[in-house]
Structures are given as structure tokens and as C-alpha cells.
Amino acid sequence: MQENNAEAANSVSKWTGTVYIFSLVGAFLSDSYWGRFKSCAIFQVIYVIGLVLLSLATQLYLLKPKGCGDRTTLCGPHSTMEISLFYISVYMIALGYGGYQPNIATFGADQFDEHDPREKQSKQAFFSYFYLALNLGSLFSNTILDYFEDDGMWALGFWASAASAFAALVLFLGGTVKYRHFRSSGNPITRFSQVIIAASNKWRVAIPENEDALYEGDDESSRTAGRKMLHTQGFKFLDKAALITSKELGNEKQSNRNPWRLCPISQVEEVKCILRLMPIWLCTIIYSVVFTQMASIFVEQGDAMKTTIGKFRIPAASMSSFDIMSVAVVIFLYRRVLDPFVKKIKKHKGEALGITQLQRMGIGLIIAVMAMLSAGIVECYRLKYASKDQGSSSLTILWQIPQYSLVGASEVFMYVGQLEFFNEQAPDGLKSFGSALCMTSISLGNYVSNLLVSVVMKISTTDNMSGWIPGNLNKGHLDRFYFLLAGLTILDLVAYIACAKWYKGIKHGEITQQLKEEDKCKV
């Protein structure tokens, strides 16, 4: 596509960011209308079609540019049709993958009954193994497919991806009759708007200390998807939406409640719950900026290092396999060693829990700082052994192993912790939205990374300087960019600790009614 390093890094960040923005679309359709199973199936079909189109566009057009081929003449730009087909296909992939991903995570968690102690424990393990499965799939892409694509066999790599996605779709549909299915709970935007407007209409009304004055609602109106949410302190202004005035009392007696003036307290708590999640979610975005460097800046750094060991060449992109192996090892150590050890210690202190989800996310931020410091130090040494004219360095690419491994370790604590946290703390009717929050964090991390690279390049290229991330990294200061990210992550960690201390978890009451056969089909 004839882009330089900074442009290519930004293109990757924009596309990856869009993938995860589409996760909100998938979560909304799933929670509101389609349900998780139907959403998974539809978005997987879109995903497969996008991969097939990309494979065709690559094989027929993108690998056969016009006006070159003699190893001296620069290739001309592709036609508008060819470029359009490329972008249509990759953004269909973004829509399919983004819409599918949060729903499959939540749909998998649906298969475990939280009220069964054994299944509840299995559900906690599910998120770790789900993330491990994602990374094992990536391991194939980042090793086998990378070698094909590094030799120019892009079409083969894309066709292999399309075949894999099709096989996954068939496998998913094969289990249809044995899944537990849950009915969608309606449009959450309407429910949220009703609370905000009802509370605003009563902004002059004082809230009594007696909680009995708050409208509980009947069984059907007070549940969001199965469990009633209990009243909590905080965001007291929103409690006015459930405050029964004399006018609402008359309407209630006549069974004529206006949902835009009076909302059940469980509906109010649904809004409070999402508002409490927002500060925690915002603090995860800077971590995602660190994470996204693996797909862009890390690869560019690796390309500027010695990539051969004897006659064997290591593609820079395949170094992310060390991230994946790190994920696998750390998940095993966490589940088999660290978590049982912490539980044993806390049990002696009378505490039942091991490392909490919020604590794990904090640990992930600390390890992310270590990863950026490691990358910065490696870059200092890479520059020390670099030749500015050749654009490469004699420092072996294997020195990147620590930074990839540290990012992988941080993922286990941050992203697995996020998946568990947002799925557990989201209201029952917004579970897919909870999973989408994790993916949207990655999305905004990519956009922030894109913005950060652009700002850094604009500032650092003044006075005819090459900038921190030029086409020839040997003329730049990529190490300063890594150290900048480490500093930003430290500041983010401080903010995160404050938000985690402030956070109050969701409170559920008893199940208000048994889910009907059409709501839930047990295996």
C-alpha cells in the first residue's frame, strides 16, 4: 500500500480500533434484540465473507501491481476499485470479528450456572482458558502464516484464515441443540433514558431518608434479566427517578405508571452500575496503548535488528509468539500455583477470595510499565550497535523476547481480569456490553496510540529533525517513545488505584422469577 513506518503503524491502529468499536454494535444487538447465539452466528458469517473477499482481492489484484516487475521500477498505485475492494473486505472482517467477539465470550459464560457452586468455579476458569484459546489461534498465525507471508505468499495466508474461520462457524453451529440460550432483554438505551429523564423531572424534589419511598416495581418491571438489583448509595440524584410522588402514586393505583416519570429502583441501579464501571474502564485505555505496540512499533523495531540466526531468518512479526507462549505459561502458573497459594494465605486470615479482579488488573499495569522499560532499554542498545546508513543494527532480535513476554504476562492479569470483572459487574441484561467494554478499551487504546504517534512525530520533527519514529529508526529515538509510554502508564496506575478504592460492587437480590423455557434452555 506504499505507506511509511508511521503511516503503516497508524493504519494498523485505526483498523484494530475499528474492530473493537464494532464490538459495541455486536453487544447492543445481542443484548437488545438478537440474543447472543444469533448474534454470534450472523457476525461469524460476515467474518468469513470478509476473509474470502480479502483473499480474492489479494490474489487477483494486490499482488499484481502494474508498471513494475523489473526490480528497478517502482510500482504504481493500485486502482480505486482495487483499493476499495481491499478496504471493504478488511472492514467487513472488522465488523464480523468485532461483533462476534464479545458475544462469544458472554455466550460461553452463559453455559455455567452461577447458582451451582461447581459451575460457578468453572465459569471463573472459563475466561482464562477462553483467552488462552484466542492466543493459541494467534500462535498459528504468528508463526506458520508469518513465514508464508514474509515470503510474499499473502494470498495463501488469507485463504488459510478464511478456511479456519469457516471451520469455526461449522463447529459453533454444530453445538446448537446443547447450548443454554437466554432471551434478549430489550433496548438498554431506552431504559437508561427513562431513568435520566425521570430523575431530571424531579430535580427539585428532596429524597427522603426512608428507602420505602422508592418504587420497587412488580416482578416483571423490577428485573433487568433475571435478578433484581438492590438499592445502593451513591449517585443519589438518580434515586429521584424511583421516588413516588403524589401524582405517581395515583397512577400506580390505577396501574397506569408512566415509565418516563417513575422507574423501578432496579432499573435505576442498572444505570448506577454502568456509571461506576466507567472510571475503571477509562483507566484500562492507557494499558491498551501499550498492548497495541506489539502489532506495530515492536514489529518495526524488530525489522531494524539482526533477524538471522545462521541461515535461519526470523520474521519480526513472529516474535509475538513469545507473547502468546508467555500468556499460556502465566495462565497455568496463575491458576495452578499463584491463585491457590494466595487463597490459602487469605483463608488463614478468614478471607475466602484469592486475588481479586481489580487487584489483578493493577498487577497488569505494573507489568506493562516493566515491558515498556524493557523495550526502551533494548532500543538504546539497538541504536548503540546500529548503522544509520543501512537502517539496521547488529543487535539480535532475540533481545525483544523480554518485552514480548512481559506484555503477555500483563495480558493475563489485565485482560482476563477485565473479562471477568466486566462480565460479573455488568447488569444481567447487559452482559455482552460488559464484555464489549473490555474490547472497546483495546479500540480506544489503538486510537490513542494513533494520536500519540502523530503528536510525537509532529513535535519531534521540528527544526528539520528526523523525529522519534522515522522511516529509518536508526535516525530516530524510539527509546524515548517507549519511556514516554512507561511514564504515562505509571500515571494511569495511580489513577487506577484511586478508582479501584472508590468502586462499589453490584448488589443482587433473589431471583424474582424463574426463567421460562423460552428464556433458558438447559442442556
Report on the structure:
This protein is 66% helix and 3% strand. It is globular, with a radius of gyration of 26 Å. The longest helix has 34 residues. The chain is mostly helical. Helix 14 packs antiparallel against helix 15 and helix 14 runs antiparallel to helix 17. The chain contains 17 helices and six strands. It folds into three domains: 185 residues, Growth Hormone, Chain: A (Up-down Bundle); 82 residues, no CATH class; 236 residues, MFS general substrate transporter like domains (Growth Hormone, Chain: A, Up-down Bundle), CATH 1.20.1250. A two-stranded antiparallel sheet has the order 1-6. Strands 2-3 form a two-stranded antiparallel sheet. A two-stranded antiparallel ribbon has the order 4-5.
